């Protein structure tokens, strides 16, 4: 799935890649997870669902390249995943989880290597590696032959499979390594969970409702206001109230952003809606450099990226 995670654009591939990773970990640790107390299982499942929900946001973000919001969603998903892996209910154990999960990814490598070299499991590992290698060879060799034989099939295959390039291969290897480390951290930690009782030991100083509620409520209100404004822009007529040269100039920037179609793994609801609106408006509504020069009379950013 690493090949279908679009780093250049937000899209559904982020969610699908994380979903596959989560499903693989759940299958691998189902026996150990069954030994956890029921409340812990529900709490950890909730954190895992929260991580998936945060990455699902990337499938609906618009074409505005709000990478600060993407960063928050990705980091938040990693934090939720750490809590799902290590657990933790108090402030100290939660902070410990955020540090322990990355460390477990490194500490778990010898543990994984030991399992692969075990007498009963070495054959299974070789069969898996052989199967993956054979699958890749079949796809590359016969996919290339069939694509060269029929133009229609080549077009369909090109839409389904990412374009193979040197940079793309390195990106896939990097993402596959990151996903593998996350899986190792999850399986290793859940199979041998750390003792958090000493971390959450009672102390004379505790954080009360008066201390944590105001900043959390303020942050929630800020994000709620941001989402409300985004919905207003999307559904409250998505630029129509702007002065004409500004509207036409802005639409020209958006057309440039959406010039190339997205592959299926980079599908995004915001960009799909934007393309539908542009098709409805028609080419006459799209401005050019003259409209952008006329828009200079308004107090607006002089560069397209400054508006995103």
Short description:
This protein is mainly α and 308 residues long.
Structure explained in plain terms:
With 308 residues, this protein is mostly helical. Helix content is 69%, strand content 0%. The protein has helices at 12-33, 38-56, 67-86, 91-117, 122-149, 151-160, 166-191, 209-235, 244-257, 269-281, 289-294. Helix 2 runs antiparallel to helix 3. The relative contact order is 0.12. The model has no long low-confidence stretch (mean pLDDT 78).
H/E element order: HHHHHHHHHHH
Strand count, sense and barrel status of the largest sheet are: none
% residues in beta strands: under 5%
In the predicted model, the low-confidence regions spanning at least 5 consecutive residues are: none
Overall form: flat
Helix run count = 11
Structural class: mainly alpha
Rg, nearest Å: 24 Å
The residue-averaged pLDDT reads 78
The helicity comes to: 55-70%
- DSSP, total strands: 0
Distance between the termini: 29 Å
